Amino acid sequence: MKLIIGLGNPGEKYERTRHNAGFWLIERFAAQNGIAMRKDAKFQALVGRHAESGVWLLLPQTFMNASGRPVQMMASFFKIAPADILVVHDELDFAPGVAKVKQGGGIAGHNGLRDISARLGSHDYWRLRIGIGHPGDRQGVSDYVLNKPSADDRAAIDETIGRALDVMPLVLAGDMPGVMLKLHTVEKTPAKAPEKAAPEKAPAKAKEKSKEKTPENASVAESDAKPAAATKRPKADKPAVAEPSAQQQKAMPAPEPQQAPAEEKKVGLKSLFKKLLPDGKK
Question: What is the pTM of this model?
Fold first, then answer.
């Protein structure tokens, strides 16, 4: 890599706006490495150089829509090919906290990229895209990028810039596959294992379910269900009649002899004739 460009708008009015995310990264990199960014009228930009690698740093001061002019002049002066240029810019399509690197591609409506592509006559330069989020409405994009991000969004963007700065040694060395591998692989913080809750006492066991009806126990179940048959009571024995003693038998009067049925009939007929016959014939 030979030239790294941060996009944004010059002046205090815009220095904290979302559109200046590219400026923020280059300014932090320069501060960390003790690089002085000086205004260069010839290139219409703030220019600095990383001593160890010889890579140029550029912050155009022509406002976003005319960013291509300083880039073209510097690339032409030092004979730098588009493939050796990295442009750092804000990206509406990424949420705050996301950063990705790619080479070539479209401009996605970014005015700074549009002017650079037109001036260089190529889309083959590298881009480091810093996510700033989208307002949700195309009509509100202009106001959105020219306003300050919320405290939470700014914190997420700063964290992303920090991760991008971690891969800058690879950028300076031209190891762009290594940059993408490291930047695009976000290490996930291992989830905290949930604390084990104290074991709850097992609730009292519900009554066991009745056993399934099988041929073996069906008869038992049916017999249990039927009321027990009433047992037959034995018939009470008739009280025994005591036989009279010998003395009692002597005292008892002798039974009268019963008349024979034929004799009774005769007596009856005689008495009947006596009643019917006149008194003289009796």
Answer: 0.66
